[in-house]
Fold this sequence. Notes:
Elements: H1 8-16, H2 18-26, H3 31-61, H4 75-91, E1 94-95, E2 98-99, H5 106-119, E3 136-137, E4 141-147, H6 160-165, E5 173-176, H7 186-194, E6 204-207, H8 211-214, H9 219-227, E7 235-238, E8 242-246, H10 260-271, E9 275-279, E10 285-286, E11 289-290, H11 295-298, H12 300-304, E12 310-313, E13 319-322, E14 331-335, E15 352-354, E16 360-364, E17 373-376, E18 395-401, E19 404-410, E20 416-421
Parallel strand pairs: 3-7, 4-5, 5-6, 8-9, 9-12, 12-14
Antiparallel strand pairs: 1-2, 4-18, 7-8, 10-11, 13-14, 13-17, 15-16, 16-17, 18-19, 19-20
Helix pairs in contact: 2-3, 2-5, 3-5, 4-5
Amino acid sequence: xxxxxxxxxxxxxxxxxxxxxxxxxxxxxxxxxxxxxxxxxxxxxxxxxxxxxxxxxxxxxxxxxxxxxxxxxxxxxxxxxxxxxxxxxxxxxxxxxxxxxxxxxxxxxxxxxxxxxxxxxxxxxxxxxxxxxxxxxxxxxxxxxxxxxxxxxxxxxxxxxxxxxxxxxxxxxxxxxxxxxxxxxxxxxxxxxxxxxxxxxxxxxxxxxxxxxxxxxxxxxxxxxxxxxxxxxxxxxxxxxxxxxxxxxxxxxxxxxxxxxxxxxxxxxxxxxxxxxxxxxxxxxxxxxxxxxxxxxxxxxxxxxxxxxxxxxxxxxxxxxxxxxxxxxxxxxxxxxxxxxxxxxxxxxxxxxxxxxxxxxxxxxxxxxxxxxxxxxxxxxxxxxxxxxxxxxxxxxxxxxxxxxxxxxxxxxxxxxxxxxxxx
Length: 424
């Protein structure tokens, strides 16, 4: 079953009830237990500022509904959620799959102190791909499946497995663009990633690194790199017409660690006249414009030379199709709507349009730093009575038949919302 839900309200109780919890746990504590509790108190103090910052942000944007998964882009808070989820499952402190934290139960503070320290580890060793280890050959015909921010095990993510397993025709690869919640721990990678992962005998399995996997040091993530026989956290798949390149933008957050840039230059050089499509977790830009980070600077010359034809990313939790960039000719896509509950996108001033199965897509105009485009505005039926507050989940496929590449955006059960040639 998926990792238990640690809602914002539950995390609030941990911080707000810390004094009472520590006092209860200190009763009759051994010297060793007292040291553990002191360490846990120190850890909470270190993360209090991040929690208060997140609280202020959510008060401005609207708090997530209680009983719905929530996670911050913060290592300490995500690890704390992982720890609470693990212990809640161990002692059965669950109600409708949500952790019920009791600050007066003396077991909590001691366990959180031990487990939190175990998870807060050094990063996994970086793996450098040789510069002559460039591409894996795939078929000239078939469908590549792309998922992102899918590692929740909920909210429609779990329904994608039978859909993908039932896709007609060959599937050369299934690629996850990253984020397994809360912090990519071994148990979370097992329950939220591996257990629901689609099984196809004809597909290469590939997974990109992301910030949530790196919150626990990326160790469990690299275990699945080995399970997938992927070897490294960056890779390239190629046929006669297409080169599909996956980058690790998380080992160093929003950047290219190690020799990736030099390796990428080699891959693009040998690609010749093939179309080049990048895959990454982090984005080059978003709907509000440019984003911080080094990706734009690192890839400036390749973008200016129009050597990157399309780029699919996640990290932001919505489905957005950008118009071709006027300067670079780039087709950019955000597909971070794979499984994490996110606020439903409202219509803007540019109007809306309807596509397959009545899906509603909101238009937005271009601005400095990014082109205009459309964003999926449907609700999420997997959230029941809360569906109107949250956006729809789904995934993307790229079907190629020789030089022709068709992109499709699908609901978890397989209804096709948009189908069109990527390079029309």
